[in-house]
Amino acid sequence: MTVLVRKEPDRIYQSLGSLGSTEQDRSRADKLDQVLEQRIKRLLKDLKKKGLTPEKAGKGSTTAYWEVGRVLHGVADNEKLLDKAELPLFWQNAKIYIPGELLYRDRGPYREHLWYCYRLGGYPKELVDKMSWGEWVTIFDSTGINQEIRFDGWFKSKLSEQQEHIGRSWIRTFAPCINVMLGNIYTPDLSETELFSCYEAAWQIVAEAHILREKHGGKVANLVERRELQASIKSNMGLLGGVMDGTLLPGEYVCRILADASE
Predict the structure, then answer these.
(1) Which residues contact 151 (CB under 8 A, 6 or more apart)?
(2) CB contact at 8 A, 9 and 16
(3) How far apart are CA 127 and CA 162, in angstroms?
(4) CA geometry: angle at 9 spanning 5 and 15, to 5°?
(5) Can you tell me the distance from the alpha carbon of 187 to that of 159, in angstroms, rounded to the nearest whole number?
(6) CA 129 to chain centre
(7) How far is the C-alpha of 190 from the C-alpha of 180, rounded, in Å?
(8) Pair 139, 145: CB distance under 8 Å
(9) Closest CA to 256 of 245, 246, 244, 243
(10) Three-state secondary structure call for residue 5
(11) Is the confidence at residue 19, as pLDDT, over 70?
(12) Residue 13 DSSP one-character state
């Protein structure tokens, strides 16, 4: 498993799981590089034509980053060219051709801008448009979501149910709830049912909190405050297992969390 990570002044290849690479590995890496270069050059022309090229790094639109993600998806999903384990190296290959205006400062190995673009590119455009880029970043930054690709399948279904744009306050309450629920859990050990039950419970908590806030004109004391919700989830972690294994209905769990948050 080898990827080209630099071309100038010398070609540098990096491999995962081994100290070196074979000629066959490098040949495959060169093929990947050629395809990637062609696709990105075409992308840059399309973005310029559509007026989507950002003026500087960090100022791109959600649509621009989605377009980048679609290209990355189209190349990376070719199993003959890339193993998914090589994605961290793939970002380095892509950065040879993607200009700085479409990138962002490095925030760590698990907060790679191109990883977020890649994930965004897996969503239909009509769903992508239901949130701003800042909210997508909040989602992808979150513990229990950041490295959990199964979240995207659940979230596509959830977004399809929403008729309106999802606002900042909703996402910035939902994400911390997920952080508390899954922050100390190795999510690959969870079944899809267990994982999705956590996501659904967090979503319902936010939904009920927002209903209460609207009903009381946004003046419900501690009941719907993010910190109180997080504290309530943390103090009731023993109940989360019941939600995951189906012995506790999500609605009952949500009522308990909201009730404790108001005390």
Answers:
(1) 144, 145, 195, 199
(2) no
(3) 9
(4) 25
(5) 22
(6) 15
(7) 16
(8) yes
(9) 243
(10) strand
(11) no
(12) E
Alpha carbon distance 52, 5 (integer Å): 27
CB 175 within 8 A of CB 137: no
> Is the pLDDT assigned to residue 232 strictly greater than 60?
yes
- Answer whether residue 11 shows pLDDT above 50: yes
Most confident by average pLDDT, 88-92, 210-214, 257-261: 88-92
Tens digits of per-residue pLDDT, 144-170?
999 999 999 999 999 999 988 998 989
pLDDT for position 20: 66
Q: Tokens 């973005």 correspond to what residue?
A: 47
Question: Which 8-state DSSP code applies to residue 64?
Answer: H
pLDDT at 263 over 80: no
Q: Is 145 left (phi over 0), alpha (psi -120 to 50) or beta?
A: alpha
pLDDT band, very low/low/confident/very high, at 217 (cuts 50, 70, 90): low
> Contact at 8 Å (CB) between 56 and 64?
no
- From residue 74, alpha-carbon distances to 77, 128, 129, 135, 180 in Å are 6, 17, 20, 24, 34
